[in-house]
Amino acid sequence: MKTAILAGGKGTRLAEETTIRPKPMVEIGGKPILWHIMNIYSYYGFNEFAVALGYKGDYIKRYFVEYGTLSGNLTVDMENVEPVRRHEKDHAPWKVDLIETGDETLTGGRVKRLKPYLGDSTFMLTWGDGVSDIDIRKLIAFHKSHGKLATITAVRPPARYGHMRFQDDKVVAFEEKPQTTEGWINGAFFVLEPQVFDYIEGDMMMFEHAPLENLARDGQLMAYRHEGFWAAMDTLRDKHNLQKLWDSGGRPWAVWE
User: Fold this and answer.
1) What CATH number is given to the structural domain containing 204?
2) By C-alpha distance, which of 58, 84, 60 is closest to 72?
3) Which residues form the Nucleotidyl transferase domain (predicted)?
4) In terms of residue numbers, what domain contains 50?
5) What domain count does the chain have?
């Protein structure tokens, strides 16, 4: 089963970082968040990816070319026809299709443009800026159990601000950014059947809007409720929060460690 990752957006709310690189290449712990996302899937045995490129897509291409050829120990023999010899492989066993999907294409259009690379079987899809400790095996098992075309992961993200707890009007405790207990949001980490492509009409369609809405209307969209950790890196503040978690050793999404 292949995993599609959307990595073509401009990341305007993270402009401090994305003026020089695409958002999926913004680093947490010295590695692009895209690397973190791929490691989540790889931990569960899913090592084939189709990455939808757009804004500064060449940056991502260069990263993977170097990741696959320059990692680990090397010997450089200038007199040899093939001057670089690798001693061992020091990287994940990934096969990555890097597909140009246009600078201005919206999320639905990017998904549709990946169709030739995803085959005619069940595939997974996520965004290139969100991490989670989701159990991919359980997600897939849930998808297979209901027989519908699409599964979306529903999450309750951490609250943006701390909460106060009261007894009548007296403040009795402060809670530092607890996980919200009301409402569920789209956490990506989809499992999809190829018929979902029929719900996407063209490049200028947001996958989060008409396709998902119409799948829900047709009774073909099911929600896998993930109660654990989930976070998206939309802003510089989000990036700093993830970096703080990484530095403290509290890395709930790093299931591969």
Assistant:
1) 3.90.550.10
2) 84
3) 3-201
4) 3-248
5) 1
Per-residue pLDDT reduced to its tens digit, 177-221? 555 556 799 999 999 999 999 999 999 999 999 999 999 999 999
What are 73-90's pLDDT values in tens digits? 888 888 888 887 877 776
80-129 pLDDT tens trace = 888 878 777 767 899 999 999 999 999 999 999 999 999 899 999 999 99
φ and ψ at 125, to 5 degrees? Answer: -145, 140
CB-based contacts of 141, cutoff 8 Å, min separation 6: none
